Amino acid sequence: MELSTFDKALLNSLQGNIPICSRPFAAMAEQLGTDEGTVITRLRELKAAGYLRRIGTFFNSNNLGYAGTLVALKVEPEEIVTVAEAVNKYPQATHNYEREGIYNLWFTLLTRDSEQEKNILAEIKSLRGVEDMLRLKSNRKYKVNVQFQLN
To answer: CA 121 → CA 58, 88, 110, 130, distances in Å?
Structure first.
């Protein structure tokens, strides 16, 4: 599927210009010169084609009382899929991805308190195939706003 001019305008708008209102897709449609149904239908098609992963908000986890930890796991290669699936079951785990190197599975853990973090990480560390774990605690947050302007 090739992106149309409309698709590019829609994706550009979606990256940072979603109106805060009861019907944001209707407001976007008005800005794009179309109707709400067209916007919603096209977003579904773009998602199905792999151009979108998700539509959601970003929140400041620190202001909401959460603490972030980047976790690196050293996992036996034959267990990596099983361990990744187990990590994905925790709603506190985000950005779970495989990397090359000794520590081959990385994820971010957002928890409300150190006890919850300790318990989750103990459970994950006890999974079959997990050989080692690094906790890289967040001391300062740097947020980079990345937007891809499609022409």
So the answer is: 24, 13, 11, 11
Number of Cβ within 10 Å of residue 18's Cβ equals 14
- Other beta carbons within 10 angstroms of residue 105's beta carbon come to 23
Nearest to 52 by CA among 61, 62, 42, 64: 42
Are residues 28 and 73 both part of a single domain? Answer: no
Distance from C-alpha of 64 to C-alpha of 122, rounded to nearest angstrom: 24
Q: What is the pTM of this model?
A: 0.65
Parent domain of 34: 5-48
In this structure, the answer to whether residues 25 and 86 fall within a common structural domain is no
**pLDDT tens-digit readout, 112-138:** 999 999 999 999 999 999 999 999 987
